[in-house]
Amino acid sequence: MASAFGQALAAVALSKILTVQKQPERFWLLGLIGAILRDADILTCAFEIAYEHVLRHRGITHFILFAVVLAS
Asked: Do 43 and 25 share a domain, yes or no?
């Protein structure tokens, strides 16, 4: 099972491989936040939200549409 920090590390590694230009700090910060934000929905477990609810872990933040909206 991947952790949010492992996903952030993978994002940094891929960015280093796929780009030859030096990127600004904002690029790295947004990349790390984007990788971690995907699993921020694990915090909803503390609020006793039903497992089937869209806000629960592996809910809305794991949809492609969420990534597209976040990226725009």
From this structure: no
